[in-house]
Amino acid sequence: MTSSLRPSDSDRRRLEDDDRRFLWHPFTQMQAWEKEPPLVIERGEGPWLWDIHGRRYLDGVSSLWTNVHGHRHPRLDAAVREQLDRVAHSTLLGLSNVPAIRLARKLVEIAPKGLTRVFFSDNGSTAVEVGLKIAFQHFQQRRPAEPRRTRFVRFRHAYHGDTLGSVSVGGIELFHSIYKPLLFDAFAAESPYCYRCPLGKTFPDCGIACLGSLEEVLGGHGAEVAAVVVEPLVQGAAGMIVQPPGWLARVAALTRRAGALLLADEVAVGFGRTGTLFACESEGVRPDILALAKGITGGYLPLAATLVTEEIYRSFLGAPEEFRTFFHGHTYTGNPLAAAVALATIEVFESEGTLERLRPVLSHLSRRLEDVRTLPHVGDVRQRGVLVGIELVRDRATKAEYSPAEQVGARVCRACRPRGVILRPLGNVVVLNPPLCVGIPEVDLLVDAVKAAIAEVTGA
After folding, report:
1. What are the pLDDT digits (tens) for 13-48?
2. Cα(307)–Cα(317) distance, integer angstroms
3. Is residue 142 part of a domain?
């Protein structure tokens, strides 16, 4: 879009006023929002976004962790346009459509071996919700002599979305505690937050130590557990908490030993975010149920997928009068537009060698983050692939936290905007999660902006 097509001064003022008057933003305290001029995005290209005033920003959080190959990627744009010339939507209830079929086949081909069936929904929370319901019903429909497993295991600091089933297996008190009366009860297990390990261990030993609580839960209640729900390698919404090597594989082994299913939530970590196409690959883990969303369409359209094994799928087969049908669905399940762009997103990974091209960029990012680690109010820097969490502390020696009222993380992210970078914090953790199309110059801009903003806000 050329500058001549930008909104006029009066249009810009109207947009900003209407935003404050009519919109309710997610995870946002609107009382504070209404006091500030909103940042209104008009267009994007590659890793860049432009606001209605023509200012350019690096999209440092990939438009909430969804954008993979950049905004307005020619191949993805073409996929949407071509599908529009055919049909925008046709229900998957009682019918099928070409892009959904092709995408399902492609997902099975590239996913961890053994996952053979794809159930589409429309966002990460529903992908997990689908997985929970499938696991529950699967065990209700097994042979009468087998235990009817009805419970789930969740990990501390976990986040799996905001629908009630997904919240029930979450573990972030700030987000979830207010809804507790609405939730089903799940067994809680410890997860490795090595910087603040409750057992006093350090990386990587805290991972092994934390497994004791999972062993205890499964040892005492294993026959009741339908599935263990885990975010592989990184707990994203908790502040990019990176799991020690081998922890995921041990969780998988303990789950199998208990006869439960492993539900891997790769909504945030899938599609290259951790350096491999799927996070489970790095430890050779094959989940029984895999939840995907966010990057599946390259950040273009809402779509999610829940993949399961053939054994699980076949437990739902039967005569109509047996009522073994999976009674779940969404209006836009398998939407042709979203499926078409998702297929193109996967093809770009292959045609452009995205992950291979990214490796030297990730190495450069790791080196540059060492500059940030030296700042006196940076307590911890965590990285896995493009996923980075920079934890800010009042006192480095004691790990004392800033109070929520100080809004330190939010202030750092705001201070990045004049430096040409858009970020969003998780409390006192500044999160970096750029699109996979970034190069070394963009990484330098990102890290330089963050370092300067932290120094400005903390007075370092």
Report:
1. 999 999 999 999 999 999 999 998 999 999 999 999
2. 16
3. yes
Q: Is the dihedral of CA 281, 436, 298, 85 positive or negative?
A: negative
* Nearest partner of 116 among 311, 309, 343, 278, judged by Cα: 309
Q: For residues 237 and 27, is the Cβ–Cβ distance under 8 A?
A: no
222-217-180-183 Cα dihedral, nearest 10 degrees: -10
Helix (H) or strand (E) holding 390: strand 387-392
- Number of other residues whose CB lies within 10 A of the CB of residue 310: 11
Residues 222, 259 contacting (CB under 8 angstroms) = yes
Q: Which of 351, 375, 400 is the last residue of a domain?
A: 351
Residues 6+ positions from 14 with CB-CB distance below 8 Å: none
Contact indicator for 57, 63 with CB cutoff of 8 Å: no
Q: At what angle do helices 354-373 and 336-351 cross, to 10 degrees?
A: 80
Q: Which domain holds residue 370?
A: 39-69+353-458
Residues 453 and 327 in one domain: no
β-bridge mates for residue 184, sequence order: none
pLDDT for 353-388, tens place per residue? Answer: 999 999 999 999 999 999 999 999 999 999 999 999
Distance, CA of 411 to CA of 450 (rounded, Å): 11
Answering whether pTM is above 0.85, one says yes
